[in-house]
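DM from R.C. (forwarded with permission)

"hey, sorry to bug you on a friday — could you get me a structure for this? deadline for the figure draft is monday and I only need the backbone to look sensible"
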Amino acid sequence: MKETRKTRARKGGKPKTLLQKLAAAPEKLFSGAFRQQYAALCFRRIADGPGIEILVVTSRDSGRWIIPKGWPMKGRKPFEAAAIEAFQEAGVRGKVRKKPVGHYTYLKMLDDGDVVPCIVDVFQIEVTEIAGRFKEKGERVLAWVGPDEAARRVREIELKSLLVEFQPQ
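My reply, with the result:
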């Protein structure tokens, strides 16, 4: 039986952090090419001013703040995949920019415990619709915050920079 974070916790052992897993097997980090993901930088304009708010969501596993993202989808262009992720994870739709506004890298822990480096192309979505029902409703916390607060909440350094410097196009 595969040991999961929950079963380790029940046995009294703490689950290993990402850095602890990497320290135990650093070759995993350099054993393959970067994996590709696509993300949605969802924003809305503030009605009574020139500013914007950015949507951040929590991840389902660790509860850390992220922007909606996922793996490539067969038969879908990258910007389409980002838009689908935004709707599935946060229930938002809007005008999607077809070219990425930037990218960032991070280490992804897979379900089997492996750690892989990922490069994430980020596509802006100006939100025009917020749905009451969507696939992952109740599984994540959503927050509309200013760019500085969004950058403060996320963990990835390159994503922090992207959020602080973001200018809708």
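R.C.: lifesaver. The helical segments are 5-10, 18-24, 27-30, 78-90, 147-153, 157-165.
me: no worries. Strands lie at 35-45, 52-58, 65-66, 69-70, 92-96, 102-109, 115-130, 142-145.
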